[in-house]
Design brief:
The complex is a heterodimer of chains A (292) and B (71). Helix content of chain A is 47%, strand content 12%. With 292 residues, chain A is α/β, with parallel strands linked by helices. In chain A, 43% of the residues are buried. The chains are: A alpha/beta (292), B alpha+beta (71).
């Protein structure tokens, strides 16, 4: 790998500046060497990019394959950034189609929707790993993920998928620090969950709804907004914008509304509390409560 | 059909906070979104301060309708 940062020097510097973090990274390299050969579930995000970098360092490119699941729930912009990062890392990279949308359990959008999506993803990766003679399938989950609502973790566990970042106790903040030290472009990347995460639980996931969300978010990004989510509520789009975005909204407000309407929404609603991670989980309690 | 008493309470909270012109409706497939209209963007911080109280009435989200903002 050549990202312009000599790995040995980076590690030497890290051992001086943050010996505990350096130890975790060495543990990670050791764990990966033990695994022998790996097929990584790779989104091109912060976690899977660092996992891929470490796997390349520990095993060499001949024993590493990064696989990205492609479906309507993955925005094209995210796919492109995964391809770009793989190219930069010199990472063998494969895209495989996943068909979670044809699973009625997934399409019904229950609160454990991610379980059905990840089941499909991991079964595809297990197939690829078997075909290519790779010993293990890896997930980029980290030590913080187990503290959140992550039904997808169960799917990984059921299919014997390993999560080395989690196993050595690396947190998201530590992964960002390591990524920065190694010069990975992903070090400050924002969280980019799949497009289905923009639909409230109970509202069916369809290709058309996913397309609407992708188009509306692309329109807002074209206006210079960065920290945002377009939440799909049927005929209404609920916009969650970051604090900085809210501060510069006034002059572009008509263009914001027009861009979201052009994506097929009849109503454009601005969430007064702004962007926050996992906002759709806020409705879980109500959804599960008996209706009057 | 009588009005949802939660909406009446939400409207009352907005009026008491100094927004007598605000109109309030409900949206979303599970009717969990309060939609406030007839207010401009400048009122956003004050409306946001009311979010915990209005959501406590049994809603998930409090929003400002910007579908057709004033030019």
């Amino acid at each position: 790998m050549d990202t312009g940062f000599p790995t040995g020097q980076v590690l030497a510097d890290l051992e001086c500046s943050d010996p505990r973090l350096a130890e975790k990274y060495h543990l990670l390299l050791g764990r990966l060497r033990e695994l022998g050969s790996v097929c990584i579930g790779y989104s091109g995000g912060v976690d899977s990019a660092l996992l891929a970098q470490a796997a390349l360092l520990a095993l060499g490119s001949g024993r590493v394959l990064a696989v990205t699941g492609v479906s309507a729930s993955v925005p094209e912009s995210q796919l492109q950034s995964a391809r770009d990062c793989a190219r930069l890392l010199g990472l063998p990279h494969l895209e495989v189609g996943t068909d979670e949308l044809s699973d009625p359990n997934y399409a019904a959008n229950p609160s454990n929707r991610c379980y059905f999506c990840k089941s499909e993803l991991w079964s595809q990766l297990q197939r690829v790993a078997t075909e290519r003679g790779l010993a293990w399938v890896l997930d980029g989950s980290n030590a913080d993920d187990v503290r959140e609502h992550r039904p997808g973790l169960r799917a990984a566990s059921e299919q014997a998928v390993r999560a080395p970042l989690l196993e050595v106790g690396l947190t998201k903040a530590e992964i960002r620090t390591l990524s920065h030290a190694f010069g990975l472009p992903t070090w400050d990347q924002r969280a980019a969950p799949c497009l289905a995460s923009r639909l409230p639980y109970g509202l069916a996931v369809t290709p058309e709804r996913l397309r609407q969300v992708e188009a509306a978010e692309a329109a807002l990004r074209a206006l210079g907004l960065r920290e945002l989510r377009v939440r799909h509520h049927g005929d209404a789009a609920r916009l969650e914008l970051g604090t900085a975005e809210l501060g510069r909204l006034t002059p572009i407000l008509p263009a914001v509304a027009a861009g979201v309407r052009a994506a097929g929404f009849e109503r454009v609603l601005l969430d007064v509390e702004g962007y926050r991670r996992g906002a759709l989980n806020e409705s879980l309690t109500q959804l599960q409560a008996p209706r009057a | 059909m009588s009005e949802d008493p939660r909406l009446r309470a939400a409207r009352s909270m907005l009026h008491d906070a100094g927004f007598p012109a605000a109109r309030v409706a409900v949206a979303g497939h599970d009717r969990g979104i309060v939609v406030v209209s007839h207010l401009d963007l400048a009122s956003l911080p004050a409306i946001a301060a009311l979010a915990p109280g209005i959501k406590a009435l049994g809603f998930s989200y409090l929003t400002l309708d910007i579908t057709e903002p004033a030019q």
